[in-house]
Description:
Layout: H1 15-23, H2 27-31, H3 38-47, E1 49-53, E2 56-63, E3 66-71, H4 72-78, H5 92-101, E4 112-114, H6 120-133, E5 142-144, H7 145-151
Antiparallel strand pairs: 1-2, 2-3, 4-5
Helix pairs in contact: 1-6, 6-7
Amino acid sequence: MVAYLEKTDRNVEFHEIIDFLRRSSIHYALTISRVVSTTFVVQFWMSAKSKIINNVRYITAKVAGKPVNISEASIRSDLLFDDADGIDSLHNQAIFDTIQLMGYEGDLTGLTFNKALFSPQWRFLFHTMNHYISSKSTSWDQIPTNIATAVI
């Protein structure tokens, strides 16, 4: 799926979130459209193994019959994340505090958040994140902590 991040007169209330996504390090990953052969995906996962080479963890696999090595750095580079020195996790209290600042109107004791308890702008952002970077381990109405951390 590719995110459509255009501003129109009909989505004025979302312009701030669209600007945020355009400035974010994940903009390219959300908006680039790649054609990927199903055969290559199946071949990749059938041959994928985790290895550590020179203290760097890699996924080694075959794509189109050729060996490939994938590291966190190669993913960041290919998706133009440019955030190697960024924060990759937050303490629960920091997540709860920020979620509360975002106007969340629900209980802040669990590790998932209900999308309906945010304003429409935040619901749109979390909906986008859920669809484009989530592994879908919860319902579409629930925001797991890893997605909340990515937004924060």
